[in-house]
Amino acid sequence: MAVTYLEAIRSAQAKALAEDERVFIYGQDIGVFGGAFKATKGLAVAHPGRVLDSPISEDAAIGLAIGASIEGMRPIIEMQFADFSSVAFSQIVNQAGTQFYRTGVRCPIVVRLPSGGTPGGGPFHSQNMEAIYAHYPGLVVMTPATVEDAYHLLLEAIALDDPVIFCEHKHLYNHLKAERLPEKSDLPPNKARIARAGRDATVVTHGAMLHEALTAAGDLAREGWQIEVIDLRVVKPLDSETVLESVARTGRVLAVGENTPWGGVTSEVIARIADAGFQSLDAPPRRLNCKDTPVPYHPNLWAAHRPNAAEITRELRDLLKF
Amino acid sequence: MVELASSPEINEAFPRSASLDPSQSLLLRAYRWMLLARTTDEKLAALYKAGGKISGGVFLGTGQEALSAALGMALRKGDIFSPLIRDLAGRLAFGEPVSDAMRTFLGSKEGPMRGRDGNIHRGRIHEGQLAMISHLGAMISTTAGVLLARKMRGQTGTVGAISIGDGGTSTGATHEGLNLAGVERLPMVAVIANNQYAYSTPNNRQYACADLIDRAKGYGYEPHSVDGTDFEACLEVVGRAVERARSGHGPQMVVGHLLRLTGHGLHDDASYVDPKLKASAVGADCLRLAERILIERGLAEEGELAAMKREAQAKVEEAAAQALREGGPDPSQEDWAAISDARMLDRGLAMRS
Fold it and tell me: Which end of chain A is more exposed for a tag (fewer CB within 10 A), N or C?
């Protein structure tokens, strides 16, 4: 029976609740209602008193998680939408992100961010926050792009002794399916995955853009080009090694992100390649992001705002011509 | 004479001396913590003014010692205390050694913050004293988190106390934190030191309700108001609030009325403070008032008070000298790691071709 990306997230939380009494989940409408996206459906009934509805207080929810972690718990906070984590920004970057460095006391919390655009989501229910949080020290930032990673990275996040920002992509929630959840992950949480091997150019991406990049690579394969696609999986720490090794093989690189273009994951990837892989390059490294506006509401505008397979294909053709 | 103890064990119960009325013994103990805090603050001020020893600001609790000490004394080992910037007296009474303040202000590598954070941003998390961040109100929900974890495990009998000022009550984090602790019905004691000014901003630019204690009802807290210049009243009112929280009566709010008798920090001459406020009852110095009460009641003689001061000074001088001897951290010995799991450090940040 097929498992969706969303079901993988629910299964990982169910497993953590069942196996580790320190785990609890706190967030808006996540109790009996099961959450805005149903990521906690059934969990409150199965684990009474451990899946709790919070007031609409994102800042206090993160503060509460930090306090509970001090007391030995492993809290998971569900933000209803990643966009609302900006209300909790101070607690995340100023307290969760600084605690271990300042005091030596670890802060094992997981903040789940339903991220990214969907048609009709609009400016305040569509944001991608991974670059913002990756900018701050003291945080691990995960961006699962597959059903398997949604499951295993979430379990890794709960097991880690550090604060984890877990960016789960809403566009993948029900679209993406896998046959089953493998018992073990084939990769540790600090390694990127080569999602498709190639020799002519490398695409470095993460989250929902992985699937656009794979479509583009498939299209170009019909013209004889072999595009390597790297799924970063985790953007902080960023697996520079896998990226640099790939670029050393292909000599060409395009970084693709759904985030806005100023700074961010793609610019970080390009900066590292320019710094440590300059000699490998046969062409200027390029990057592709969404447009520099808020995420628009209308499906026509939304579809044109984010990078897509056709645009990635076009960029890669340019890159291959150089 | 009671020894100037700094161990948290002393807070486990108020002393019951055979020779003294319990409340009288309590007054003497409160005075000692207030005095030790004031003496430490005076030393910090002297070091700051001498220049070169303290990096960054110095923020004193002058005028707020009675309220703060009362809170620290009402708490027991196992409770949670999230002090704010003017809580040296409460910190000491809760068990923080004087050396923590000296080491953190002077940047000693041996201090609890190892030079990574300074001045009032210090704590001993695993001993129940959280290390404040500067963002006002943030520690309320954090304290609530500790209490919720205990509630989930069925652990009862401990309380969590937070300190905040009149200015801090205006932040969103304070509202969220107070409300959340109320919703979860946690044994939270929120002590608001209304010291009339937030940095330079007077109360009439800070809040529009008649009295901050009016907010207790809105958050579902039991209300307590106290004259923050009167150490006996502080001991009684704060002690009662803590006891109510401990015995299952839900969250408690205390508003203490007093005046900050110093600038926001030593860089601030506080010339904006209304002279009428200074001359009014709220502007009284709680330490001087405490001394007068102790003498009037025959609990201490002038000579004994002078001896207590000398004792406090000796303790503070020793802590300062020790912190100065220890010196600051060596950057070359730092691991520069903000993540505890070595696998999850971003090693690629340091990669070069």
Answer: N
Q: Do A60 and B130 touch (CB under 8 A)?
A: no
Residue B149 resides in a domain: yes
Which of B287, B73, B85, B28 lies closest to B189 in space, CA to CA? B73
The whole-number average pLDDT for the span B42-63 is 96
> A20 to chain B, minimum CA–CA distance in Å?
13
Let me know if residue B343 belongs to a domain. Answer: no
Task: List residues of A with catalytic annotation.
Answer: 125
User: Nearest 10 degrees: CA dihedral of B214, B217, B218, B222?
Assistant: 110
User: Do A175 and A149 meet the contact criterion of CB atoms below 8 Å apart?
Assistant: no
The b/e string for A256-295 (b: 16+ C-beta within 10 A; e otherwise) is: bbbbbeeebbbbbbbebbeebbeebbebebbbbbbeeeeb
CB contact under 8 A, A67 and B143: yes
pLDDT band of residue B303 (cuts 50, 70, 90) is: very high
Residue in chain A nearest B334 by alpha carbon: A101
Does residue B333 lie within any of the structural domains?
Answer: no
User: Chain A: residue nearest B144 by CA?
Assistant: A64
Domains and CATH numbers, chain A: 3-178 (3.40.50.970), 193-321 (3.40.50.920)
A258 near A230, Cβ under 8 Å?
no
Q: Which of A265, A272, A260 is nearest to A232 (CA)?
A: A265
Q: Closest approach of chain A CAs to the CA of B172, in angstroms?
A: 8
Residue-wise pLDDT for A154-163, tens only, equals 999 999 999 9
Read off the pLDDT of residues B186-227 as tens digits, 9 standing for 90 and up: 999 999 999 999 999 999 999 999 999 999 999 999 999 999
For chain A, the C-alpha Rg in angstroms (whole number) is 19
Q: Does A90 touch chain B (CB under 8 A)?
A: yes
- Other C-beta atoms closer than 10 Å to the C-beta of B98 total 25
Neighbours of A298 (CB within 10 A): 12
Q: List the single range of A205-209, B20-24, B147-151 with lowest mean pLDDT.
A: B20-24
Number of domains in chain B: 1
Domain that holds residue B34: 29-327
The ipTM estimated for the assembled molecules is 0.96
**Chain B contacts in chain A segment 288-317 (CB below 8 A):** none
A90 vs B116, B135, B152: nearest CB: B135
- Residue B148 in tokens: 């919720």
For residues B143 and B82, is the Cβ–Cβ distance under 8 A? yes
Q: Which of B114, B130, B180 sits opposite A60 (nearest CB)?
A: B180
Check which CATH number belongs to the domain holding B316 and give it: 3.40.50.970
Q: How far apart are CA B106 and CA B160, in angstroms?
A: 29
